[in-house]
Amino acid sequence: MSRHAKSQVANKPRFDPLQNVKKGDAAYHAVRRSILLGHTQPGETFLEQRIAEQLNCSQGTVREVLLRLEQDGLVLRRGYRGTVVSTTSIQEAAQMVEIRIQIESTGARQSTMSIGRDILAELAAITNDMDEAVRNLDFYRCSELDRAFHMTLFHQAALPSLEPILNRCALHIHRFTYLNAEEMEPELSFGDNHRALLEVIQSRDPAAAAKSINSHIGHVIERWAPNLMEELNRIHKHESAPLR
Amino acid sequence: MSRHAKSQVANKPRFDPLQNVKKGDAAYHAVRRSILLGHTQPGETFLEQRIAEQLNCSQGTVREVLLRLEQDGLVLRRGYRGTVVSTTSIQEAAQMVEIRIQIESTGARQSTMSIGRDILAELAAITNDMDEAVRNLDFYRCSELDRAFHMTLFHQAALPSLEPILNRCALHIHRFTYLNAEEMEPELSFGDNHRALLEVIQSRDPAAAAKSINSHIGHVIERWAPNLMEELNRIHKHESAPLR
DNA sequence: CTGGTTATTATTATCGATATCAATAATGAA
DNA sequence: TTCATTATTGATATCGATAATAATAACCAG
């Protein structure tokens, strides 16, 4: 028996031995989930001590969580006076989409050339998990898996310092879409969209891949946030930048 | 005498009474400065305890600092094994420029319409401080004031959730430029460029302002990182997106 | 020797207590 | 009463100590 396992049994393990995650990470996801699902609305304030109680951890750990969420742009810290949940305007969401398309087009072009069989399999697996999440009507998991798909693909482009920006934009777009949608029933087209995208990527044509991911993003917005699509069209009238 | 001042005198103030800044902020800027100036090179690792000693603060405070720097993309945290300084490739820098132009064009268009006399004065003041920094050959302060100028201008666009992204891109571009430049003597053209930009903004023509800020960014890159400009041109050959 | 188990070490992760801060309520002299 | 000054309160910011972790060194049966 290894020393590691022994110490966990001997002196009361503080973390769940089953899922070896850091407490701070768990707390981060818990709070982020609450924000993304609109369980805590924009404008509401978090208090470090209270969250610490609710999540069974210390103030310092919560502090770290709120710091991370601030960098994600999901909360605003007002030193000594609490941390409030931020809001995303449609103008901001539209800009996030522009940035996202800029980044992911480049990413798709790059990835197409270097992507291997193993990654394609991983992407397919994520897509299958997504079908499962859709069947369970679990929007949050859908949103996480969607980001995982796009981030995994982009990771192949080997532009690591852009990954946090992409992740951040995707996060804001998901929140905007979810909080503003009339109805939000996940549907199987999610997975099918990604599978179609994978087909094109496998064809190894960089330009086609870039075009394909752009139209993928466009379709999703058209379907779930038509008002955001209108905003994008309005913008393009004034500055003539290409969406797809 | 206020209670605040009294308590500071009575029981040994922990913070410098002269500049009432939070210790964490001071530490953040100290470490960031060290990275931006290349004083600590990409690949070097930070240890929380050591930094804490050097900066005369506790490990927890340093932790917070490194967390922030990770979100800035300047370091990479490898849990339990130290925090290493990241690097920025020319491809990444080029993408950052694209994003920056995307954001700042929109910002300039918006700001032009809502900007007031007070903000114009503040921008002019920042520009004057920059002249001073140039005279002192203080590159870091130049870089900070340049970001302050652009961020102050963009703040008027009222798109707060995009501000951290812009700041982050500007940060990376500055670092790339500084670490890759042959010579890096600040020169007075910095301030003059900004003054010319202010002229155009005062004319209240959104399209002109957007065009002007694009060419401003272009000029700066052309002057200080010609190889980055080449990379941008190479990109545009393939995807036909407008730089200026 | 040799390969796997067990200490050691260096470092991050977490906690609980205390200091500091900003807002507001209480106080009291003019 | 009024308003400047002084507590009080509820929150964050910081600290110092301890626990968990990963890498590596020491150990020892075969």
State the separation between the terminal residues of chain A, measured CA to CA. Answer: 58 Å
Global structural class of chain A: mainly alpha
Average pLDDT of chain A, rounded to a whole number, is 87
Helix proportion of chain A: 55-70%
> What characterizes the major β-sheet of chain A?
3 strands, antiparallel
Order of helices and strands of chain A: HHEHHEEHHHHHHH
Q: CATH top level of the largest domain in chain A? A: Mainly Alpha
The chain pair forming the largest interface, with residue counts per chain, is:
A-B, 38 and 38 residues
CATH architecture of the largest domain in chain A: Up-down Bundle
CATH superfamily of the largest domain in chain A: GntR ligand-binding domain-like
**Outline of chain A, from the CA principal axes?**
globular
Strand order, main sheet of chain A: write it out. Answer: 1-3-2
Count of individual beta strands of chain A: 3
Oligomer: homodimer
Number of helices of chain A: 11
Mind telling me the C-alpha Rg of chain A? 20 Å
- Report the β-strand fraction of chain A as a percent range: under 5%
